[in-house]
Design goal:
CATH architecture: Roll
Oligomer: single chain
CATH class: Mainly Beta
Radius of gyration: 19 Å
CATH topology: SH3 type barrels
Mean pLDDT: 80
Largest sheet: 6 strands, antiparallel
Shape: globular
Helix content: 10-25%
Number of domains: 1
Strand content: 35-45%
Structural class: alpha+beta
Low-confidence stretches: 94-103, 105-114, 116-120
């Protein structure tokens, strides 16, 4: 099963990618390198832009992996928007707002939109 993970390699590179684990290896696809962007911020860059990963991805021995962790939702969303599926995980406030919406009636100002209003 493919999962989005932050992976740190022995070389010091930190990657965010889709990971499939096997006994002694991991296969990584849709790989982005995590780069410092100054002032406590980070950025994402294409990892090995001069190589073709293809659908098979890249096989890495587990002995070359320092750690694998789950990214926080906000970071995972940014990755998915730029390098992954494009799907995002809504934050709890957005989820609550969408859950509390009244789906009955036509969409329009004050009709079936809960506290949301149509802006023209």
């Amino acid at each position: 099963m493919e999962e989005v993970k932050v992976v740190r390699l022995q070389t010091g590179e930190e990657l965010i990618c889709k990971v499939t684990e096997k006994k002694d290896t991991i296969t990584i696809t849709n790989v982005a390198i995590i780069l410092p962007a100054g002032q406590g911020k980070i950025g994402l860059g294409e990892y090995l832009p001069y190589c073709e990963f293809g659908d098979a991805g890249m096989c890495v021995k587990k002995s070359h992996v320092v750690f694998m962790l789950d990214p926080v939702d906000e970071f995972k969303n940014q990755y998915n928007g730029a390098f992954g599926s494009g799907l995002v995980i809504p934050d709890p406030i957005t989820s609550a707002a969408l859950t509390n919406m009244n789906p009955s009636g036509p969409v329009g100002e004050g009709s079936g939109t809960g506290n949301l209003k149509l802006v023209k």
